[in-house]
Amino acid sequence: MKMMKVVLLENIRSLGRIGDVVAVKDGFGKNWLLPQKKALRASSKNLQLFEDQKQEFEKINTERKKDAEKVAAKLQGVTLDIISPAQANGVLYGSITIKDIHNALKNKDITVGKNQIDLHKPIKEEGQHKVSLVLHPEVSCDITLFIGGTKEALNDLMNPEAAKKKETSIETVLVSEAVEAVAQEETSAAEA
Fold first, then answer.
1. Apex CA 97: angle with CA 92 and CA 102, to 5°?
2. Which one, of 149, 161, 144, lies nearest residue 78 by Cα?
3. Which of 78, 96, 128, 146 is the most exposed place for a label (fewest CB within 10 A)?
């Protein structure tokens, strides 16, 4: 496995901070870090270039962090309501993916890159789910997803007290119907 040394031009989560010289796999460096201008090969010429422009790179990183903090503040308390067909047991017929979350955020006029949504695996069940957004290596936030098979199921998820009242009223109706049925049977038995 070939490795290459690079100097980071920005903070990269789980890799390092600006100016760190790190060893990465050849493919990762050549295919992502270098083309995205997130790093330079760690040659003496590039290290000198980095030292000359270090303040500029740090300034750019600070600006990006401030922008990310603004977006995080805008996302504070945001909930997304997603309706997706589901079976009676709450398992979705499909799944909720990064694309679905991205589109739901876009519908709320919140611009976030798909690569900033940290979803380890697609969501396949109805319910309330937390999803992390990594807006900058130093700034992340959580949003809440309410996923329901129908609008009614979604409302029940978002307002559990109303759902309990509805269940209680249904149980009351069922109990009263059962009591009436037993009374009718007793009346029929007494007449016979």
1. 130
2. 144
3. 128
DSSP tag of 173: H
Residue with tokens 């991205």: 102
Kindly report the number of other CB atoms within 10 A of residue 192's CB atom. Answer: 5
Kindly report the average pLDDT of the chain as a whole number: 84
- The residue type found at 181 is A
Q: What is the tens place of the pLDDT at every residue in 129-175?
A: 999 999 988 899 999 999 988 888 878 777 756 444 444 444 444 55
Is 158 buried (19+), middle (13-18) or exposed (0-12) by CB count in 10 A? Answer: middle
CA distance 76 to 17: 26
Partners of 90 in beta bridges: none
Separation of alpha carbons 22 and 8, rounded Å: 8
Weakest mean pLDDT among 9-13, 19-23, 146-150, 188-192:
188-192
